[in-house]
């Protein structure tokens, strides 16, 4: 599907939204410089830029969360004055967040109309009208969804649909989507693109933020790039290429070199054998009889659909699941399952998928965050347990350069960093510990295209020092370019190894075949 071909947007239509000459600073940090941006009815306009370039800030101004220092937001020819989220929402501007904000034990209809329920004589909620309206909306978009279904029973993609219904029920004309495919299976991704085509036909304009180039070329009518707070574009996807966009986004492209001495190696290999040996690992319902071996210097990729048990496997290895059974050996030494402290001590490190919940102490400084797992090695000495701030700052500086982290300095609070830069901090803090085994769960999710390449090179160069790596990723290009071997996980079991040297389409097709085969297999 090409964006322009499937869209309702025609050049010459008046714009739905115009952002004119927008400027914004946070304290002394100037983030946006005189930015112009337009969105037309029925258009998918992709917004790109390196992590920390200012995309979310611009969108928050459009949504009324932040007020611009200068410039104006114009909706269908009318400038929007104040900055109030409810005002902008009532004018039809809505954002579909990555972390969805639904009430799990409410129904679809209750969530869709949350906060603007139809009422009977302003006394009570008109349940029937709410259901009827929800069903009408569902039917008009051709969703497969019941108005009565409870949110907690729905898959992520269906929850995303509810978020979209919620926005449309409030009369949204502008939808902002931030990395909407990151938690979707392949089939759900196709369904989302079809849904977007339907929204376009209704004249809804979509601002699509993503670091995944393939999907931008699949669905965007136009794209604009923010570089260091300044706007480049708009461009037509047909007039450019992934390489050109990557070089337009990048400042001076920084060399992906790991700081040569990551603190000091924590645990030296005790044998020349495998780094990791796992036998018959199982957790109730989620992992079944998983066995795998990782050699020193090897990157083992795990491919699977959403819900196949990929994150569970990493958590089980790292001792985060108490009800886990089986045998785990690191450098030949047995690590009891369900013991995080033992896993950490033995030299494992886990970069979790959910950086905000599991990866960062958001109210602490970047230097604190990056140093946290390495404090024992940053201390002055055994008898002098204090950690000099300068050591933490130096550690932060090394990773800031290697990963091109956009931050005001080591003392900046982690919560003020852009999403992609937060991910780089989580990645850096575990790399700094110099682990023996690095467990990576979607390590480059939300990270810009240049930084993705840098992080992948870093994973390779870390492995080259003898570290074992288990890499879970839903980005097939990441697996085929970074992993030495790719295991296929279906329904909590490793069912196959992908063919050597498989390219992206081969891996995609191989996984699909294994998923289909697993459905027909009789359970043992
Ligand atoms: N509330 C805030 N206070 C201070 N600084 C902020 C705040 N919000 C964002 N920033 C800073 O503004 C800059 C732009 O951040 P923004 O989140 O807009 O980037 P982004 O392009 O969306 O990045 P990403 O791709 O990583 O999501 C960053 O340097 C960030 O640290």
TrEMBL record:
GO CC annotation terms, alphabetical: plasma membrane
Topology relative to the membrane: Peripheral membrane protein
Domain ABC transporter: 17-253, 267-516
The entry's keywords: ATP-binding, Cell membrane, Membrane, Nucleotide-binding, Repeat, Sugar transport, Translocase, Transport
Main location: membrane
SUPFAM superfamilies: P-loop containing nucleoside triphosphate hydrolases (SSF52540)
Pfam family, one: ABC_tran
CDD domains in alphabetical order: ABC_Carb_Monos_I, ABC_Carb_Monos_II
InterPro entries: AAA+_ATPase (IPR003593), ABC_carbohydrate_import_ATPase (IPR050107), ABC_transporter-like_ATP-bd (IPR003439), ABC_transporter-like_CS (IPR017871), P-loop_NTPase (IPR027417)
Domain of life: Bacteria
GO molecular function terms noted in the UniProt entry: ATP binding; ATP hydrolysis activity
Localization in the cell: Cell membrane
PANTHER family named among the record's database cross-references: CARBOHYDRATE TRANSPORT ATP-BINDING PROTEIN MG119-RELATED, GALACTOFURANOSE TRANSPORTER ATP-BINDING PROTEIN YTFR
Protein name (Swiss-Prot/TrEMBL): Sugar ABC transporter ATP-binding protein
Species in which this protein is naturally found: Lichenicola cladoniae
């Amino acid at each position: 599907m090409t964006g322009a071909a499937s869209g309702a947007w025609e050049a010459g239509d008046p714009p739905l939204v115009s952002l004119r000459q927008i400027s914004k600073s946070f304290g002394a940090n100037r983030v946006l410089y005189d930015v112009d941006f337009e969105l037309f009815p029925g258009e998918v306009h992709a917004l790109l830029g390196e992590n920390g370039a200012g995309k979310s800030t611009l969108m928050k101004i459009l949504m009324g969360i932040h007020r611009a220092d200068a410039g104006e937001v114009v909706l269908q020819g009318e400038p929007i004055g104040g900055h109030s989220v409810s005002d902008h929402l009532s004018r039809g501007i809505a954002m579909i967040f990555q972390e969805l904000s639904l009430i799990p034990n409410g129904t679809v209809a209750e969530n869709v109309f949350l906060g603007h329920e139809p009422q009977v004589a302003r006394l009570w909620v008109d349940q029937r009208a709410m259901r009827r309206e929800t069903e009408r909306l569902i039917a008009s978009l051709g969703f497969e969804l019941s108005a009565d279904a409870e949110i907690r029973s729905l898959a992520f993609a269906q929850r995303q649909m509810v978020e979209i219904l919620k926005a449309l029920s409030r009369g949204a004309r502008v939808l902002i989507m931030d990395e909407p495919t990151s938690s979707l299976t392949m089939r759900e991704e196709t369904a989302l693109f079809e849904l977007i085509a339907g929204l376009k036909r209704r004249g809804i304009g979509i601002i699509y933020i993503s670091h995944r180039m393939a999907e931008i070329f699949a669905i965007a009518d136009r794209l604009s790039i923010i570089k260091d707070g300044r706007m480049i574009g708009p461009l037509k996807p047909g007039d450019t290429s992934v390489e050109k966009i990557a070089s337009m986004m990048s400042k001076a492209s920084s060399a992906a070199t790991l700081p040569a001495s990551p603190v000091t190696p924590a645990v030296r290999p005790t044998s020349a054998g495998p780094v990791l040996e796992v036998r018959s690992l199982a957790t109730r319902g989620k992992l079944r009889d998983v066995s795998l071996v990782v050699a020193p210097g090897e990157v083992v990729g795990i491919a699977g659909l959403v819900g196949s048990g990929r994150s569970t496997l990493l958590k089980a290895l790292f001792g985060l699941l108490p009800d886990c059974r089986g045998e785990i050996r690191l450098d030949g030494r047995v690590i009891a399952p369900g013991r995080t402290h033992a896993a950490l001590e033995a030299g494992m490190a886990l970069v979790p998928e959910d950086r905000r919940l599991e990866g960062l102490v958001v109210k602490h400084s970047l230097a604190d965050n990056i140093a946290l797992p390495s404090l024992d090695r940053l201390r002055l000495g055994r008898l002098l347990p204090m950690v000099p701030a300068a050591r933490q700052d130096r550690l932060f500086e090394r990773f800031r350069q290697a990963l091109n982290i956009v931050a005001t300095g080591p003392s900046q609070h982690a919560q003020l960093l852009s999403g992609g830069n937060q991910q780089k901090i989580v990645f850096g803090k575990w790399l700094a510990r110099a682990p023996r085994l690095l467990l990576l769960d979607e390590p480059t999710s939300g990270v810009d295209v240049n930084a993705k390449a840098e992080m992948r090179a870093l994973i390779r160069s870390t492995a080259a020092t003898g570290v074992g790596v288990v890499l879970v990723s839903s980005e097939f290009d990441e697996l085929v370019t970074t992993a030495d071997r790719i295991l296929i996980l279906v329904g909590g079991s490793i069912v196959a190894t992908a063919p050597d040297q498989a390219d992206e389409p081969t891996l995609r097709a191989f996984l699909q075949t294994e998923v289909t085969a697993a459905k027909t297999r009789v359970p043992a």
